[in-house]
Amino acid sequence: MTFLYPFALLLLIIPLYYLYFHKKNENRQFAPVKLSSLAENFSVKTTKILLLENLYLFRTLAFVFLVIVIARPVSYDEMENSEIEGIDIAISLDISNSMMTNDMIPNRLEAAKQTTWDFIDKRPYDRIALVLFSGESFTLCPLTNDHNILKQYLENVGNQRIMKDGTAIGMGLATAVNRLAESKSKSRIVILLTDGMNNSGIIDPLTALDLAVKNNISVYTIGIGRMGQDFDESLLRKIAENSKGEYFYAATNQELEGIYSRIDMLEKSRIEVENQQHQNELFRPFLLAALFFLLLEFVLKYGFIRSIS
Length: 309
Hints:
The chain is α/β, with parallel strands linked by helices. 31% of the residues are buried.
């Protein structure tokens, strides 16, 4: 509880002042009543006098509660008004045999998996799908907000061979685009990572690119390994530029981490979070208490006390 007008609490000096001077003059207002000869050496106060002497306490309490009302006690409930619009992302990951090359630590595939894992952690509001490709392609995990499930799938990538070897970039891209084609998100992107040249699959990479462009899907391409030898840089660059994405090259783990960080900054989710405070008025119990003590004083003074003989 807090007060909107805390300086009003200075008014509490008044009842303290009142109590001090009332106590000082108390004996002048009421005289003791002498009992009969059975107890003529003792002085006692009748019920009527006791009540009259202490009526000021009810008035004082009423004033104290009124001061609290004037100070306006309130409490606050924290409320968060959020407008969060994530984007839909399909990550298409090359898992061909060449991805086991250990020019990255411990190898290209594991380096790609780790940086992808970290990227997922940075995108809590996005739906993400995971596509794998080598000589063919398939969707390992469809678009999901459940990133724990997604990371479980990612963790097991590479533990066993599930497709024929080769590098079907066109199919890897086309499958990823298809995962996003029906999405209603305003922003949809594909992140395609490969270390090879297109040498497999029934879909040409440029055909898959046309599919991405028609669906207004941006493609970020990442080539890893030795530039110009293991992957087709010109193809990856063309796919990225024509789809309004961006092309990247990574030869080390650190460079790959930097690329994912760059994509993360380029494709920030729309997050508008406004913290609001809901104000709760707390003056009512104090107002009722003040009225109660004022009414109690009135009833005692003009009703009950007068009824006492």
